[in-house]
Specification:
The protein has 276 residues and is mostly helical. It has a domain at 30-56 and 156-271: Four Helix Bundle (Hemerythrin (Met), subunit A) (Up-down Bundle), CATH 1.20.120. Helices cover 76% and strands 0% of the residues. It is built from 9 helices and no strands. It has helices at 2-79, 102-128, 140-149, 156-164, 173-177, 182-208, 212-229, 234-247, 251-271. Helix 7 packs antiparallel against helix 8. It starts with a helix and ends in a 5-residue tail after the last helix.
Amino acid sequence: MMDMILFGAIGMILLVLIGLLIVILRDHNHGNKQFELYMRQSQREISDMKREDLKKREQPTEERSAAHAAPELKSQNESTPASEPSTPQAAPHTAGPQPIEPTVISDTLHQTDQSAVAEEMPKSKASQLKPEPSIALVTPMEQESAKEATPAPENEAEIAEIKNKSYGTFDYQRLLDMGLSQSEAEEFVVELIHQLEAAVPQIESAASSHDLVAIEHITHGIKGAALNVGHGGVADLLVDYNTYMKHGTDENVAAAYLDKLKESISDLKVEFSQVA
């Protein structure tokens, strides 16, 4: 009798454990699916934003080309000579002096003007000639003073604050709260690092072409990916970076945020180097 009760209790315990295992696996798969759907949605939003931005940039280009084409057509119409009048019939030959044709007078005046311009050209060229400045040697002291005289960039205080600000460490506890194991959560962080590294060249390319709108779109996408994994550290940095790019126009400030982002990515790589 005691053996039957013992076997029954063991069976119940096994059933409870199997049920818990099924619930954990289901939550894990649900969390993975939600994360994948969010990543795909973020990528689609970024691609849609890029297409809209390209359309906006193409429309002003077409309007400018049409605006340039209108003055050119107008100048061509003005420069096109009018149709020559029909040649009048020859008048009957009469004695006396022949009248001078207007075309002959205009040709003579035109030749006279050209000769006058040809005579004045050497004088004008000679007046434009200036002695070349002599090359002066610059001492190291003068070079240092020239560097000190260089004006500092605008928003220097804001740039210094960005470079010196500490965002702390990146916390991915929310992945563990979703039911993921430590190794699985760390794999998500490593995947986030790869996304951030891939975004850095895109930001640099947009910065070289002075496209601040593209930088705002890129930082918006990677900000959402970082906040979906955790908070603090690089996630808080991307929040500040993207917030500034929504309204800010100073490229020096944007470059300071990019340098700070590279530094944060480097710190994450060092922290998760064993997992990668």
